Amino acid sequence: MPSIFLICEDEDSNLLKVHRWVSSQVELFFIFLTNEAYQYLILNDLLFSSNPDDRDFYGNKRIELAGSLLALLFEDVFKTFNEDLWLTVSKIDTKRRCTPFDISRHIKTWMITEQLNRAISSGNWIIKRFRMMRHGVTQVVSRLSYVAALGHMTRMTSQFEKTRKVSGPRSIHASQWGLICPSDTPEGEACGLVKNVALMCHVTRTKLHQNHPPELRIFSTISKPRNVLSPYVIYVNGKPIGFTQHPGKLCVLIRGLRRSGRIHGFVSVYIKQAYQCVHVVSDGGRFCRPYIILCNGRPLVTESVLQDLRHNVLNWDDLLKKGLVEYLDVNELNDCLVAMDESCLTDGNHYTHMEIDPATILGVVAGLIPYPDHNQSRGKQSRAQVYYSIIIIAITTITIIITLPAGQNAVVAIMSYSGYDVEDALVINQASVDRGFARACVYRRSGVHLKMHENAVYDRLMGPSIERVAYIGACVNDRQILINKEMPVVSSSAVLDNTEFKRCPVDYKGIEPSYVEKVMFSTSEGNQAVVKVLLRQTRRPEVGDKFSSRHGQKGVVGLIVRQEDLPFSTNGLTPDIIMNPHGFPSRMTVGKLLEVLGSKAGAIEGKIRDGSAFSGDPAEVLSQVLIDHGYHYLGKEILYSGVTGAPLEAFIYFGPVYYQRLKHMVMDKVHARSRGPVTALTRQPTEGRSREGGLRVGEMERDCFIAYGTSQLLLERLLLSSDAYDACVCEKCGLLATSPNWCQYCRSSRQVVSVRMPYACKLLFQELMCMRILPRLRLRTAYHSSIHTKSK
């Protein structure tokens, strides 16, 4: 029988005595069941008085990481591989046992790789063993910017159905403090279900060997005392292993082992008083967060330790090994008392831990916003790649680790200027644009596959002598060929000449020219040749482009004005951007106002100011800096009109703001067409800008035309510019004629006339005739336009 090492607390001394209790697992499980029944039904009456566990509590949740998901998928794929191999081998004649059997000839080496690639590329996880089918497990990483990639790496998705309108899984739970970012979540049906991990949160991993160290197995179990009515049950990863009489001493002992490094740093221990049990957990998928350990109400991380960290004498691992910092999960955090900062550490307190930084409750993306604790809501983070980077003046603690900022400092004047700044529109300085303000690079990729056809005939690329082929550094314009590909027309003949190939070139489509950045030749999975061309386009800001500050106040460019027409300050400084002040009352982005104040104080003083959440430089300190340098304490200045030269009649809030250029650019959205391709079925213009489609006139636009009485415009939009068709109609029977000179129904050609109607209407009549519904047209004598239908 197995031997179980147990520990007993000596009542006469503080020593811990280790015993050896030989028992079977059946006896231990029977004792556990007896104790549970006694606890539930007799002592605490938990069957009627206690509430059920909260399923939204993050201590009851586990995160499935990439390793566990791939392990489940590989297990299912490998089982399928073995079953297929067994069926293949069983079909072989087993009577010929003397002949050598080579199993490698019957192994499908591609099966595991293909199924893994299919699941990862599509994101659909199908596990037959558990009858599990999940969608969207894998996603393509967003490389729009450095911050977008960081935010995507820390994203987590709930398995809760997005169509269900239940507020519990979507709401912010108290247990997610410091673990899940409370601000970064998408809009729409995924709101609250797609979340981002906080900055210093760590998700534990499942170890291959779940055997605990000998110290944990010895010091975490105790036999059930006979003289104690209600001992505490000890669980290790949900498995009962014994009982204890002093759970507090046991928790202190295990935490001491963890801080001394004798057990793993992510092993957690906590007490559940309601159920009288002690849990020791070390499984994977738990949320853990580091905290500074307090000793007698004082942090163990002193100023000397911080100096050693600044000079690279110590690192993060050294703090964990020395027991200065430790990771706590959600359940263990309930047994601790955490101080927000050192100001909370007063005499007589009972704090056990202290926060490293209050700003770490936010994620990577939300933590980049200066003074986020003063804003009502968060904003957008998607943006293009800026031409060059600028040092941020109002910086946050998290911004220090971001080495690739995607924005620029712009001098912003919050005032009304002309009528082109309404509805959050921006007025931009033309001279700033000429000097390179918000200049961005947009990259696009084009590529082709050179496929193999019948009779071993491949697609081919023609050289520069036939047509110009894009090379690195080449400037390409609209309709210019990038990749000159030709494919065979007839693939059955043995030898093909040049006349049996047709041209299928890949050309460039764009208003402005682009430059070839890279040309790549490679092979795909099927050993097909692949040719890809990467294009680069440098864009200047223009009217209609979208900008946003880090506080989510986005707006389009309404007007670009020459510098001499813009207002200027006493020092001759002209704003780069003019923003309408009506954008503040409804959005209540006070953090942006503080950013202007902090950036201005930092620019005057020549130093970077801190705008981190809950610990940034206060407004009083920033105002004092402005006063010391002769500025208004609120950051306001007197501006002079660039047209008349007279001073404006109000003080203008004036200072630098970090602005970002979004990916929504007018060059990617502008579209117009006079003629172009149509669909084969209805002969109406195609849909979409990429297909050179037309502008859609829907039901709401149609109703608007009718309300305004614009009958000719309605006729032109819905008929003449869409799918006008001259149909042949017989005046006698009212049916569509087969030709201009013959009516198949009347067997006559005397009364066949031409009627202009939408081709979709003519198609509808023909489809109704297929359904045994005969529509007839009654035509006027003067104008053949009035259409009446009746069914037969």
From TrEMBL:
GO BP: DNA-templated transcription
Catalytic activity field: RNA(n) + a ribonucleoside 5'-triphosphate = RNA(n+1) + diphosphate
Keywords: DNA-directed RNA polymerase, Membrane, Metal-binding, Nucleotidyltransferase, Transcription, Transferase, Transmembrane, Transmembrane helix, Zinc
The keyword Zinc is assigned to this record: yes
PROSITE patterns given in the database record: RNA_POL_BETA
Keyword Transmembrane: yes
Transmembrane segments: 386-406
All copies of domain DNA-directed RNA polymerase subunit 2 hybrid-binding, residue ranges: 403-691
GO cellular component term, pick one: DNA-directed RNA polymerase complex
Domain RNA polymerase Rpb2: start-end pairs: 139-203, 234-293, 316-358, 693-778
Domain of life of the organism encoding this protein: Eukaryota
Molecular function per GO: DNA binding; DNA-directed RNA polymerase activity; metal ion binding; ribonucleoside binding
Enzyme Commission number: 2.7.7.6
Record's function text: DNA-dependent RNA polymerase catalyzes the transcription of DNA into RNA using the four ribonucleoside triphosphates as substrates.
UniProt family annotation: Belongs to the RNA polymerase beta chain family.
Name the UniProt record assigns to this protein: DNA-directed RNA polymerase subunit beta
